[in-house]
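Why do we care about 3D structure at all? Because function follows from shape, and shape follows, mostly, from sequence. That is the central idea of this module. The next example makes it concrete: a single protein chain, its amino acid sequence, and then its structure expressed as tokens.
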Amino acid sequence: MRGRNRAATSLAISISLNWKGALMSKLSVFVALSAAIAASTAGADDKIRATLMGLQEVPSVSTQATATFEAVISPNDDAIDYEITYSGMQGTVTQSHVHVGQRRVNGGIVLWICGTTGTPGPAGTPTCTSPSGHFAGTWRPENVQTVATQQFAPGELDEVIAAIRAGVAYVNVHSNLSPGGEIRGQIRANRRDKDKDKD
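And the structure:
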């Protein structure tokens, strides 16, 4: 009897250990997958983009010009590395910025991309080129401009990033023919719908 009891006890212990091992293995896989999904989601949310065209302007502009804007938000939300390329501008480019405003609404300037003698922008702002241009750089809190009526204060890059992630910020390239903007595109995170800029 004792031998049978020992065998039964050993079998029970073995089954228990095997069950616990399988459970731990499944938990490890679940944790790894969760971490991978979280990292993937964060990475997608931190990559932002916009496609600029005249029909997105308010009011719309008939132009063949286009532009692409891509950027990456830093993990701590304290910097944005950006790149923009535009071409085919029918007017002479006078300035370019990021504005805060929802689609079909004009908003204030929060970040500068380029300027000219007439509209130079803050110190260190590159000079716009025409009819095409390519600019890349990094925006930090000190680059944020005041928009008093929209309650954006200097240094509030985190507030600008929140607006971008909410889909209420856009890139605008202005020209002498279209001072309000010749091409415009709403900024969106890559995790959202691929591109609804033509809506």
